[in-house]
Inverse folding.
């Protein structure tokens, strides 16, 4: 085996010289002081590779045009094995990459590792940071949900404020004032065609420069014998990579990244928020208003980037002993403080996420249920049916699996069974159900429709929807309106209400229909505010007709 | 590539500080190298396995098992293959496509219905019923099939594929296309 390996290595060496290259790379001499603080660069490269890998995987099932983009994202998340994991890795990987790249920069900055002759290494690094941010910016649009759409609207508006070049920049980003197919194509093109080769090129240059000048020593290193990169430092790097990967993998598995509603340019209630690492910029913008807005939008960020770029020329002192770099520490602390402050204010001022938000990356079968069936879901949960009955998940429980039994029974049998379980099924230990006849009808209607395919509605129907359906049924809305094809046609069909009316219009309409739609036959309803909220949220969640 | 031993010992001898590789150093080096490979393998597996599943397991959505309406079964002439067209919804990845489906339908005198797929079982060319020869003819490589779908001659490896057939009232419904794996006649 070893001989074979040697033969292969010899052959490779003779024909390509690669083993020598690898050896030169691995046995590079590094200063004695090198250690854990130098691992961030390797971790950043690793995370970039993970992003490239998961990005390619996503692209294999992704359609880069606005409407299809959303559908294909849903397909990846709900239909494909591992799709959610791959997307989770890509999503959280982006955030982690920013964190690690910044940590890498802070380390280099504090140790003065950017000083002569390493100025170019630093500057290439700053460009790499900007590229990393550009990935975040362009990738944000690609799921084409409301979050993506509105976030990008804000971004392009900011770009439009740039002095002189603003209008051209807007056109470059494909927005003639609006985010549409052209913007989408440009963002996608940048994200997958332009940025990756640029990153690879600059990364190679960056690493070449690191190797050319060697890892920056600290004072005292010149007296100590040098170490080799492999295996000790590589081991430290690998361990750090492993920790980063473990964190990333855990995040991808545990922290579910939602997919919101399909991007809706007519949605007037949506409050856009950028990704967390851009929140500080977003907040900075708020400090300036009117003609000064350009300062927050363009001038300050521009100055910050320029300063960062010129750091090696601003700080020309020879001093590199880390413990004596008080100014460096102070600047990092100040920047961290400013960043934390701005981000905290931005987070605090973000309106609390509504409980009515629907995660479209999960099954949304419940959207197809009629209001009566939906109340059935509410009673099913309220009566705790699931504690004794399985619903197609194969769990072994005291009672029979309801997705199988309901196809063989009718509503009458079920209602009798609810009232007197023992009479219908001798020996049954099920307690009688405490609901009135209407409620039992609803529960039976739902159970009759229950099958292994749609049983997920039991888990997935959000609380506001079942609560809203209860209000809908209690006020007999279905005697004039229809939802999902069930009900009467005296009043308008309620599917698609969200695209016809605003939320506040609908909420006010219940109390005084005649005021908002003169001549309507609908009578006023006195509904408690919480119920109105749930009912409106439920109606707004309904699929388009 | 055996990078550890050969090069290590070589460099070791150049290194003025250590004249001979001591046992402890070798063990530690071995441990480091082992850990690097182990972690590398672990990460590769943790990324590779989901990636393989993601690319090769296919979507969870059930196969297209909807029944397609092909019209009134009573209007079909007996014993005469007829080309019929229905419209079905097929889910293709993230899209649902409404498309035409073609079938060659043969009603026996006893009223039972057989529906053949429109493609030759050899290489997928469209075949058709030739009244003069009273055979299904594939023009690509001259495969001939009987009214029963059985191969009469030519390179076709198996009889014509059949749709699942259901008659509800007078409505002819066709389901999934199934390949007939019986040996050719």
């Amino acid at each position: 085996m070893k001989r074979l390996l040697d033969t292969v290595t010899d052959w490779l060496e003779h024909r390509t010289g690669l083993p020598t290259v690898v050896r030169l790379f691995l046995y590079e001499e590094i200063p004695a002081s090198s250690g854990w603080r130098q691992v961030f660069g390797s971790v950043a490269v690793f995370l970039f590779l993970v992003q490239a890998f998961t990005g390619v995987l996503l692209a294999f099932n992704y359609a880069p045009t606005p409407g299809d983009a959303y559908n294909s994202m849903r397909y990846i998340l709900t239909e494909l094995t591992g799709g959610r994991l791959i997307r989770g890795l890509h999503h959280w990987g982006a955030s982690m990459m920013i964190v690690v790249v910044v940590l890498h920069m802070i380390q280099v900055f504090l140790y003065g590792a950017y000083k002569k002759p390493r100025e170019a290494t630093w500057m290439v690094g700053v460009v790499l940071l900007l590229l990393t941010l550009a990935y975040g910016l362009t990738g944000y649009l690609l799921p084409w949900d409301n979050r993506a759409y509105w976030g990008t609207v804000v971004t392009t508006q900011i770009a439009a404020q740039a002095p002189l070049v603003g209008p051209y920049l807007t056109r470059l980003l494909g927005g003639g004032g609006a985010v549409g197919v052209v913007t989408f194509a440009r963002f996608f093109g940048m994200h997958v065609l332009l940025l990756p080769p640029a990153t690879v090129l600059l990364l190679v240059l960056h690493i070449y420069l690191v190797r050319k000048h060697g890892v920056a020593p600290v004072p005292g290193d010149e007296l100590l014998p040098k170490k080799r990169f492999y295996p000790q430092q590589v081991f430290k790097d690998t361990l750090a990579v492993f920790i980063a990967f473990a964190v990333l993998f855990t995040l991808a598995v545990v922290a579910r990244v939602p997919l919101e509603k399909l991007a809706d340019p007519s949605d007037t209630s949506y409050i856009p928020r950028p990704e967390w690492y851009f929140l500080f910029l977003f907040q900075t913008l708020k400090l300036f208003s009117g003609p000064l807005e350009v300062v927050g939008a363009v001038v300050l960020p521009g100055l910050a980037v320029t300063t960062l770029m010129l750091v090696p020329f601003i700080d020309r002192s020879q001093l590199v002993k880390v413990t004596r770099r008080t100014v460096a520490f102070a600047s990092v602390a100040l920047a961290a403080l400013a960043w934390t402050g701005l981000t905290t204010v931005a987070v605090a001022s973000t309106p609390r996420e509504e409980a009515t938000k629907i995660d479209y990356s999960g099954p949304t079968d419940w959207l197809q249920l009629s209001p009566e069936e939906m109340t059935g879901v509410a009673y099913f949960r309220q009566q705790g049916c699931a504690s004794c009955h399985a619903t197609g998940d194969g769990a072994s429980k005291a009672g029979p699996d309801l997705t199988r039994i309901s196809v063989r029974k009718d509503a009458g049998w079920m209602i009798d069974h609810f009232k007197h379980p023992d009479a219908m099924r001798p020996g049954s230990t099920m307690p009688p159900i405490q609901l009135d006849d209407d409620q039992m009808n609803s529960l039976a209607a739902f159970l009759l429709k229950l099958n292994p395919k749609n049983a997920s509605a039991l888990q997935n129907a959000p609380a506001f929807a079942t609560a809203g359906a209860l209000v809908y049924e209690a006020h007999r809305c279905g005697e004039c309106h229809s939802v999902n094809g069930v009900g009467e046609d005296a009043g308008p069909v309620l599917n698609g209400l969200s695209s016809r009316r605003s939320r506040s219009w609908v909420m006010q309409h219940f109390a005084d229909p005649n005021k908002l739609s003169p001549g309507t036959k609908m009578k006023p309803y006195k509904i408690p505010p919480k119920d109105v909220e749930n009912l409106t949220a439920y109606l707004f969640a309904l699929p388009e007709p | 590539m055996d990078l550890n031993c050969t090069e290590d010992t070589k460099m070791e001898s150049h290194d003025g500080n250590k004249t001979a590789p001591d046992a402890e150093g070798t063990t530690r080096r071995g441990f480091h190298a082992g850990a690097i490979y182990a972690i590398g393998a672990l990460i590769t597996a943790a990324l590779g396995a989901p990636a393989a599943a993601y690319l090769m397991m296919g979507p969870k959505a059930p196969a297209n098992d909807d029944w397609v309406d092909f019209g009134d079964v009573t209007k079909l002439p007996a014993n005469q293959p007829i080309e019929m067209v229905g419209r079905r919804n097929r889910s293709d990845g993230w899209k649902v496509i409404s498309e035409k489906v073609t079938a060659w339908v043969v009603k026996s005198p006893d009223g039972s219905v057989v529906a053949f797929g429109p493609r030759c079982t050899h290489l997928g060319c469209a075949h058709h019923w030739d009244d003069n020869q009273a055979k299904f003819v594939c023009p690509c490589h001259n495969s001939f099939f009987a009214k029963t779908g059985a191969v009469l001659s030519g390179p076709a490896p198996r009889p014509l594929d059949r749709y699942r057939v259901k008659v509800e009232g007078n409505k002819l419904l066709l389901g999934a296309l199934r390949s007939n794996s019986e040996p050719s006649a």
User: Anything to note?
Assistant: The beta strands of chain A are 29-30, 227-228, 482-483, 486-487.
